[in-house]
Amino acid sequence: SSYRNRSSSTSDYFLASRNMHWIPVGASLFASNIGSGHFIGLAGSGAASGIGVAGFEQSAIYILMLLGWLFVPVYMSSGVYTMPEFMKLRFGGRRIRVYLSFLALLLYIFTKISADLYAGALFIQLALNKNSSGWLYLAILILLAMAAIFCIAGGLSAVVWTDFVQTILMVVGAFILMVLSFKEVGGLSKLVEDYPYARATNRAKDHDNSTCGEPSPYYLSLLHPIQPGLSDYPWTGMIFGLTINSIWYWCTDQVIVQRTLASKDMIHAKGGCILASYLKFLPLWLLVFPGMAARILYPERVACADPVECTKICGSAGGCTNIAYAELVLNLLPTGLAGLMLAVMMAALMSSLLHLQLRLHHLHHGRVGGPKPAGPSQAELLFVGRVFVLALVGISVIWIPVIQNTGNSQLFHYIQAVSSFLAPPICAVYLLAMFWSRTNEPGAFWGLMIGLIIGMLRFVVEFSFTVPPCGSIDPDPRPAFVKLTVGNVHYLHFSCILWIITGLVTVGVSLLTEPIPEECLYRLTFWTRYDPRIRHPLEEEDDGDDDAPATNGGHAENAVNGSNGATHQMEVETHAEEESIFQRIKKFFSFAPTQEEEEGPKVVLTESEKAADAAAFLKEPPFWKNFVNYNAVVCLALTTFVWGFFA
């Protein structure tokens, strides 16, 4: 089946032929976001401090509407396959898209792969009842071995359908566990009543004589006070900083946006966003409340409040709330269902590695820019890319001890903190690129560079010092200046500061340098998305990217020249007869589409026809347009009610 699923063209590989229905699109959006790190992280943060962490899920609903109604129309009309391509068309040059591609790769390693590896390995470690770090790394090797076998499937279509099946299993298994956990604690009302009293018997005292392990007094609130140390979710950060991080993740991240670009049309893209929005109401009930139940049911383990005891239980002196969901699975579910939930978590990790491989394919496929090497073939580049995946996963494994020993030992907070240090500049530049035509390449580039420097400073300082957990006799190694500027500035507040600085630098440099000509921006900003005029390229499109998208949108295949294509096909057929066995085996295990699998002759369109076709692609049937708009209003009303009810 691996051979049959290999994609037959570039469009198949990157966009699943732009033929995906709204149901798999929406399910894939949800599954791409909710991985094993979320199972462990959301439930763990729920056990630690209540429902505040659910604000991250509720905020995503607003941003998914921005994705479907503001961002995707521009991406669709521009005719791009990937986000680096959009940067290429919008700004020209190579340095921005090269930088963004590799930064996205690093963010994926530190916030997705390493977190999913840690979460899955923690689950296996607990299932085997082994608490040593050696068993943790053995579990990681088991996960990686299974993922390596799984990753021989190909193309976005395979990933989307994998995510679709994973979503079904995920929701069904989590729903069963939610029912069992509510039943075990006596219902939702009993859970709310008992949570404030769920404490471990042996609780240490901190240096200021305060008792460790006390439940948060704001456990039923999404918005907490601003004062440092009083809460994990200050309301200013949850409203402003979280919005910035969410726009980066949902509206500019390649893995997420690619799902919507694979849709049949705008109606299916919006429908997928709406389905994902409805699914985002589930984590509060399927993950956060069960995490709170785990604290009530297993307070000595989940709510441990002594560094020595916690190290014995889960290997982390800062606390063991990360084991909340695994404790429920292993203690409440029958053996078969527990195995199913473990399979879902492993499937999430495998999906994450496939996403990583797709990212590398974008880099090797000429999607980042610059001439392709004259020597190695595309298949050889992809073969090297597989080795590169192993190297990047190795970095993720090495980074796991840092995750395990972060300040409050909450996996979800670690993920959000890293995103807050590196993602806000990307959000600022994309927003300006979309909605302010005066933004140019020098402004965007220097805004990103200043943002990177400031963000990396916070990143390095944050993880250079291990803050002693509550109850530890070790002194705090951080200098007073670091405590003031880092310890007292919540990562969501830092996200706001970084976003503002990046935006100011981008605007300032753009105003001091030459603007981009108007004729180069047709269908590249929100205000010109319907413009049918021919877009003039900022630079020569033929920079070695022989399968770059058409300049004026539409499908790249439409730009293929018939005679040249026929000549090339003859060369490929002649070469195919001379292929060695090794080359054929390597091609079998590569994602590279073969010429034999390419479709027949393509229709050649003029530039004006491509431009008109790209603009017309956004048109929606009136009935279905109203239908998705009404559903969007319902989603927004429901999530606003949830915010108000739990504020």
Automatic annotation (TrEMBL):
Does ATP-binding show up as a keyword for this record? no
Q: Which PROSITE patterns match?
A: NA_SOLUT_SYMP_2, NA_SOLUT_SYMP_3
Record carries keyword Transmembrane: yes
Protein's cellular compartments: Membrane
Q: Name one GO molecular function term.
A: D-glucose:sodium symporter activity
GO CC, any one term: plasma membrane
Where in this protein does the record put region Disordered?
537-563
Give me the stretches of Acidic residues compositional bias. Answer: 539-548
Residue ranges spanning the membrane: these are 21-40, 60-84, 96-115, 135-157, 164-182, 233-251, 272-293, 337-358, 379-402, 414-436, 443-461, 491-513, 627-646
UniProt keyword annotations, A-Z: Membrane, Transmembrane, Transmembrane helix
Q: What is the first-listed, main subcellular location in coarse terms?
A: membrane
Membrane topology reported for the UniProt record: Multi-pass membrane protein
Family of the protein in this entry:
Belongs to the sodium:solute symporter (SSF) (TC 2.A.21) family.
The name on file for this protein is: Uncharacterized protein
- Species in which this protein is naturally found: Penaeus vannamei (Whiteleg shrimp)
